[in-house]
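Deviation from plan, reported transparently: 5-O-phosphono-beta-D-ribofuranosylamine complex.
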Amino acid sequence: MLKTKIAVFVSGGGTNLQALIDAQKAGTLKSGEITLVLASNDTAYALTRAEQNQIPSVVVKRKEFATQLEYEEQLKAVLTEHNIDLIILAGFMSILSENFTAAYPKRIINIHPSLIPSFCGKGYYGLKVHEAALAYGVKVTGATVHYVNEIPDGGEILLQKAVAVEEGDTPEILQRRVMEQAEWILLPQAAEMVSQQLQKG
Ligand code: GRF
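Because the crystal trials were delayed, the predicted structure below was used instead.
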């Protein structure tokens, strides 16, 4: 049976990409296969992880395009060239406008390191999310996988998992716990779920 072709969009360390690669190897991600890693810069360690696992990768830099539209048309061209069915944003830091998201309805998912609708939307990414959670004093945080639309972190929620905030947590300690206990579990689960759904047409 043909597998759902997955492109993983990255910008940083790629620990979520690694979780997807590990799930594919373990057979828990079996309805889809990662056939492309697309990075927003050429220094992302995620590119090394792709190379180590023989996954084709491409770098598309926003600043090399005069407009957001031209940048997004290039993204679409690369995805078409690789026959991609599903896009997974994993620590991806570039803006995607409605011109792009509307072209892939229910075919883009994102992992956000909080329980949406808390600590999400414009300006909430990376450590900033955990700094806000600690500043607010929440006792529970977590991660969310959601469909991507034109509203930052606004698409339909697919999966969520709660993680306890502990005494003495720093943003770095909390980020690591949310990754280990939530992100790296939810994203492969969601990838398998949506890959299966896309096969049913
Ligand atoms: C992390 O802050 C993670 O919570 C979020 O993107 C950032 C980088 O993740 N999803 P990764 O290690 O590049 O997957």
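The longest strand covers residues 32-39. We consider this an acceptable substitute for the interim report.
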